[in-house]
Amino acid sequence: MIQLLISAFLLSIVHAAVPNHWLPLLAIGRVENWSRSLTLKATVISGFAHIASTILIGLLVGWAGLKFATHYHSLFKIIAPAVLIGLGIIYLLLHLLKHREHHHDHEGKQINKTSITSIIISVSIGMFFSPCIELESYYFKAGEFGWVGILSVSAIYLLVTVSMMVLLVRLGMNQIAKLDFKLLERNERLIIGVILILTGIAALFI
């Protein structure tokens, strides 16, 4: 049991460190001028959404077997990258429109504020539909210890993954704060759009 929990703990750390789990949130928080607390809150929400689907499938795996996860793996792997690529395209379009509306900066900021909820929901949906199938194998071993083992593994996945995502976003924000972005301000949406699209494309092959 101890070996199982330690393995789940280490795998959760590695799992959370994958860039497409936290980099999009860090980038979106920057380009949308979100506060530190809002960016971290969005990270927690999307992290919970991601692990929630992983746990739900894990419970089903313990009941129905690995074939279920294997059968839907290809579908899950497409949805999340598609959401990231879609958001990236939206930011590219916003970049193109920015030059036409540069004299409405105040109104543009207000639009960003009202779109906070939709952005967080979009990212969370993408994260929900990208469960970590690799983690599911531990549910078979956990099943040997009954619900105690299953719930213990689930708790580790949830707490470690979300905590690690928050830590990485926070460290990233600290590094960004040290940089001078004056030269990049005019092209922020272009840059974030490219980052999201490349992250989404990479997620299709990783």
Descriptive overview:
- The chain is an all-alpha fold and about 210 residues long.
- The protein is about 85% helix and about 0% strand.
- It is built from 9 helices and no strands.
- The chain has helices at about 1-15, 20-30, 35-65, 65-100, 105-115, 115-130, 135-140, 145-175, 190-205.
- It is elongated and about 60 Å long.
- Mean pLDDT is about 75; it is low at about 105-115.
What's the alpha carbon Rg, rounded to whole Å? 19 Å
SSE string, helices as H and strands as E? HHHHHHHHH
**Arithmetic mean pLDDT:** 76
Would you tell me the structural class of the helices and strands? mainly alpha
> Treating each run of at least 4 consecutive H or I residues as one helix, how many helices?
9
- In this structure, how is the largest beta sheet organized? none
| Beta-strand residue percentage | under 5%
**Number of separate strands:** 0
Low-pLDDT residue spans: 103-114
Task: Tag the structure with descriptive keywords.
206 residues; single chain; mainly alpha; 83% helix
Please outline what is shown here.
The chain is built from nine helices and no strands.
Protein topology:
Layout: H1 2-17, H2 19-31, H3 36-64, H4 66-98, H5 105-114, H6 116-128, H7 137-142, H8 146-177, H9 188-205
Helix pairs in contact: 1-8, 2-3, 2-8, 2-9, 3-4, 3-6, 3-8, 4-6, 4-9
